[in-house]
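Summary for the steering committee. The consortium agreed at its last meeting that each partner would contribute one worked example illustrating the joint modelling workflow. Our contribution is presented below. We chose a case with several input lines so that the handling of multiple components could be demonstrated. No manual editing was applied between input and output; the record is shown as generated.
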Amino acid sequence: MKPLIASLVLLLMLGTQPLPAAVTLESFTFAAEADKQRFKELIEQLRCLVCQNQSLADSDAELAHDLRAEVYEMMTDGNSDAEIAEFLVARYGDFVLYNPPVKPSTYLLWYGPFVLLLIAAFLLLRAVRRQKKTPEAEFSGAEQKRLQDVLGQAETDKDARI
Amino acid sequence: MVRHLRYLAPLAIFAVLVAFLYRGLSLDPKLVPSPLVGKPAPAFSLTRLEDAAATITEADLKGKVSLLNIWATWCVSCRAEHEVLVRLAQTGKVDIYGLNYKDDRAQALRWLQQLGNPYVTNAFDADGRVGIDWGVYGAPETFVIDRQGIIRHKHIGPLTDQIVNDEIMPLITQLQATT
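What follows is the complete predicted structure of the assembly.
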């Protein structure tokens, strides 16, 4: 009974709350939750140049405030995410993007690990092949005798200990 | 002989790694190369710091080699840089323009009165919007702009006499020699 009353009370409380006309984040107002989500995702992918290990979303730097306002304005003006990113890259360089674009100067960054992997795979394959090819070494007569002697010695030692 | 060389491979790899890491030690991550270098100066139209009724645009910088220095009274290293700019202006070799960035007009004018004014004129960028167009992320910053209004160099951080003598002045002389 009690949980039922509690949930009824909760329901009533919810009902009395005015429905939000718009969604807000910081000082920004959005027409819909989806817009707010889009804004959040966008500023999380952009780096603040003042405190470089923080995104625009995390940073409290003055510039980050200004750039958030800029991004918000561009968004409300109907610019696409790509256009907004392009706007910032034109001014601050690729460094503002946490995800570096694939272009000649970043080929090493993007494809370097795969090249290394290929080289490692090649070396490994070659080493394995070479090992297989090496024939089992035959013992010469003297070596064979010495081996017998050593083994025999070990056996005798073992027997002696028991 | 060749068989023995393979044992040197780890040493060689180690040497390459050391070279990269050593280079990394002397790189400053705060210095982000500007994509604006080699491009025309971004357009702007702002009021002048000295006269709210007068405007200044990027066109005013054309026709001669000039410097655009981004500064503010709240910027501590701008104060350290200021005397360097004053000395540079006294040589009369280059016109220095100022972009007063997110500042208070009265305070900025007082600063120039007290510390000397190396600027031909100052653009007053109260909300920092022009600063964003110029890719400003930390005052002081200084742009070298050629006759055609193309940005040729960007220096991030305070200028020192050494930087002016070793980097800025040689570039200015070179740009002034070409028409």
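Chain B has one domain: 33-177. Chain B touches chain A at residues 29-30, 32-36, 102, 127-129, 132-135, 137-138 (CB under 8 Å).
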